[in-house]
What we know:
Layout (H helix, E strand, L loop, with lengths): L2 E6 L5 E5 L7 E3 L6 E5 L41 H10 L1
Amino acid sequence: MPIYEYQCASCDNRFELKQGFDAESTSPCTVCGSPSRRVFHIPAVIYKGSGFYTTDYARRDRPSSDGGDSGNGGSSSSSTPAEKETSAKED
């Protein structure tokens, strides 16, 4: 069961309660008994490693469907950099 943080509307007391997901979002204050409401927090999510982006699964040997750059440095030929270097030396 999750632990929720509550804040009292009248005395600003903050307290935690262990409740189920289907519990009411209001609860009486543990100090004065006035109604209190849940305090929401932003969850900390950090994506590390591969597999979280669409570029992680991109295939480099297949040309793109939009007819643009296929990921080989803007060159329209399909030769590797080593092949280009060799052909440049022969010319």
